[in-house]
Amino acid sequence: MHFDALLLSRLQFGFTIAFHIIFPSFTIGLASYLAVLEGLWLATRNELFRNLYLFWIKIFAISFGMGVVTGVVLSYEIGTNWSVYAAVASPVIGPLLAFEVLTAFFLESSFLGVMLFGWKKVGPGLHFAATVLVALGTLTSAFWIISANSWMQHPTGYVRLPDGALRAADWMQVIFSPTFPYRLAHMTLAAYLTTALVVGAASAWRLLTDPNEDESCIGLKMAIGMFAIAAPLQVIAGDLSGKQVAQLQPAKLAAIEAFWETRTEQPFHVIAIPDSAHETNRFEIAIPKLGSWITAGHADAEVKGLKAFAPQDRPPVGIVFWAFRVMVGLGVAMFGLGAVGGFLVWRGHIARARWYLRAVVAMGPAGFVAVIAGWIVAEVGRQPYVIYGLLRTANAVSPVGAGEVSVSLLGFMVVYAIIFGVGALYILRLIALGPTPAPQLDTEPPPRGRPPGYALAAAPGEPEDGPGTRSGEAQP
Amino acid sequence: MTRSIIEPPPEPGAPTGPLWKRLGWFVGLAVGSAVVTATVAYLLKALLH
Fold first, then answer.
1. A37 part of contact set with chain B, CB < 8 Å
2. How far apart are CA A254 and CA A274, in angstroms?
3. Minimum-distance CB partner of B7 among A41, A76, A119
4. Tell me, what's the pLDDT at B37?
């Protein structure tokens, strides 16, 4: 493998965006969770919801900050490493990213200040409004970013100028390109599931040591509710998105399913080892006809294989095939976690089902892994194009040397390891402490006449009532 | 013992301030936070020029 500026730039962008996506995929769901918790506290005045809110808002603030830091880098990378892409596509993509900053990022960052520092100052009603606005901000952010990415997956509503640059001809077609609705639903559900998995794991971890902690019990039940609702919906959203890929990006679909031949009754490859050099699968475990049925709706449907595309127009097969199976496998596990958890909640055993609690803890990082795997499918599957059918990735890179990109890539790896390591450790420490508030320490001095150090110094009552004397000497 | 910078909700039964004062804090905190964000953004932009 030759490490030229193109490959190194791709590795760098892949590395930085994989780190970045961890945080928004968590904060999108967590902001909505905080809004739900605060709404429930306002409606019921149950202190458990307030305690959970105060616990998760700390983790939200840290994750939000780390998301901003890792996200700012990406826009600069487009300029430094992908300047040809920027020159060609910025008249279309630039405004979408600018709208994201103006409508979403500023909404989030403005009202996060009220969320963190203003509960007593603004009162419960206005504070709840701030929390809801931050949650809306995270969803609006997802809207614009998925819109920009969906346009890159299937560009519509543009014209090409004689110099090769692209201009928007119809903004509605640019913003609402055909793949956008399904991909937005898929990503939003993924974010909600990711958050539910983290909340569930944190709650289960606490319940393993203290099955009577009420906050963790409620947190776990809410997480299970989200698994039970969002995981089946995610299956539907993923299926709809996949069927659209079959129509609009058939080469990507062929890579996802490791189809080499164009034929009817395509099998579904549960496991395969694709061999691009020999245009075949070296090993496969397949279910006959199921591939055509899943991708096109019926077993007799003809589905294109990779051989229908010139080798230079095919995406890498192995990584797309396996990333898709990791994503789907984890999705099935989430589905199972919701079904079993729902049954245990119904039976009333949830806090003491230790095997289930351990499974929920083990699944804590699964949402992040599934999100990254899903993005690998979407982005590597779009290769060799950066804007599908319009601009090849190889033609989009900046005229920079491999040495320069190597240095910046190494710098990112070191800095991200430090930032991510410290941030993740701090969040895990907070999670380990749990949502139960520390008991209020009585800062009042002990009643007069009781010496410091006397065991009942702060107990109510007259000192003469107790076993000690004014001099603090115990009576036999 | 450390003190959390995150402000907890008012105690149950605690008197709330007048609406104009609460709205003032709401707008002030929101605008202040936006100004901090914008300042950081302009500093980053200046760094690149």
1. no
2. 11
3. A119
4. 83
The Cα A452–Cα A221 span in angstroms is: 46
In terms of CA atoms, which chain B residue is nearest residue A42? B9
> In which band, very low, low, confident or very high, does the pLDDT at A319 lie, cut at 50, 70 and 90?
very high
**Res. B43 pLDDT band, cuts 50 70 90:** confident
Contact across the interface for B22 and A50, Cβ inside 8 Å: no
Q: Looking at residue A448, what is its pLDDT? A: 54
Q: Tens digit of pLDDT for each residue in A408-450? A: 889 889 988 888 889 889 999 988 888 876 655 445 555 555 5
Q: Which helix (H) or strand (E) holds B40?
A: helix B19-48
| ipTM of the complex in this document | 0.86
Q: How far is CA A142 from CA A30, A379, A453, in A?
A: 14, 17, 57
Residues 114-143 of A with CB under 8 A from B: 114, 116-124, 126-127, 129-130
Chain A contact for B24 (CB, 8 A cutoff): no
Q: How far is B39 from chain A (nearest CA, A)?
A: 12
Q: Which residues contact A94 (CB under 8 A, 6 or more apart)?
A: none
